[in-house]
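Handout, section B. The chain below has 102 residues.
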Amino acid sequence: MFTCSVVRRGDDVGVGVIGAVDGSSIGQLRNQLLNLAKQHPRSIDLDLAGASLPEPQGVRVLVEVWRFASEHGIDLSVRSPSVAIARAFDVAPSGALLTLRT
C-alpha cells in the first residue's frame, strides 16, 4: 500500500511517503511532487523513512524533481533515502539545493 501525505507550513511543504512505491504508483509520486513544486514553495522536505522506492525509477523521479526545484530556487531535502538513492545524489551535481538527511 502506498500513501503520500502533504503538510504545508507557510511557504514550506513536508511530504511523507509510506509504503512500497512500485510501477503502478511511481507515476503518482512523480506527479504529486512536481505539482507541489509547481506551486513554488520555499522548500520541500521529502521524508522517505517509511517508503521503499524502486532504485532506478526512484532516482529518476527524484532527479527530475530536483532539477525543477533547482531551476526555480526551491530548497529540496530528502530524509532517510535508501543507500542507492543517497549514492546517486552523492555523485550528482546537487550543490546546496538538495540535502540528504539519513
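Note. The domain at 2-101 is CATH 3.30.750.24 (Transcription Regulator spoIIAA). Compare this with the example in section A.
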